[in-house]
Amino acid sequence: MTDTTDATASLPPAAGTLIERMGIEITEVTRERAVGTMPVAGNIQPYGLLHGGASGVLAETLGSYAAQVHAGPGRAAVGIELSATHHRSARSGIVTGTATALHLGRTLATYQVVVEDADGRRICTARLTCMVIDTDA
């Protein structure tokens, strides 16, 4: 069953978080897909290229938000594994990440996250696995 409910209205505030510091803007979140953008400026390494860690932050953010929607009320999604392959560099502009569910289970959720530049060229492919746990609340 595909959940097409957009959960961006119910996202927790990003103020004071790494999401804000990186300039990430989340534009779509469902249990099966999350999309967001991030500027290259301010997220570069000393050679002027988008930092690979910044791509990892974008990937984990998007996959974690989608996994949280999958987890539902009274449960939480926590990242347990992230891997990333960097295909090409970006020097300017905005990159867009799209997290797509690969597995949505009772205790694990796995997403592939593709990060692309403004021309649609793949910058990075990442995979995130989140554990879904019950919360104490």
Can you describe this structure?
The protein is an alpha+beta fold. It has 2 helices and 6 strands. The chain has helices at 18-22, 52-71; strands at residues 25-29, 33-39, 75-86, 94-104, 108-116, 122-134. A hairpin with a 3-residue loop joins β1 and β2 (33-39). The chain is globular, with a radius of gyration of 14 Å. The protein starts with 17 loop residues before the first helix and ends with a strand.
Structural class: alpha+beta
Query: What is the 3D shape?
Result: globular
Order of helices and strands: HEEHEEEE
Please, how many helices?
Answer: 2
Tell me the span between the first and last alpha carbons: 28 Å
What is Rg? Answer: 14 Å
The overall pLDDT average reads 93
**Residue windows where pLDDT falls under 50 for at least 5 positions:** none
Ordered list of secondary-structure elements with their pairings:
Blueprint: H1 18-22, E1 25-29, E2 33-39, H2 52-71, E3 75-86, E4 94-104, E5 108-116, E6 122-134
Antiparallel strand pairs: 1-2, 2-4, 3-6, 4-5, 5-6
Q: Quick summary of this structure?
A:
This protein is of the alpha+beta class and 137 residues long. The protein has helices at 18-22, 52-71, and strands spanning 25-29, 33-39, 75-86, 94-104, 108-116, 122-134.
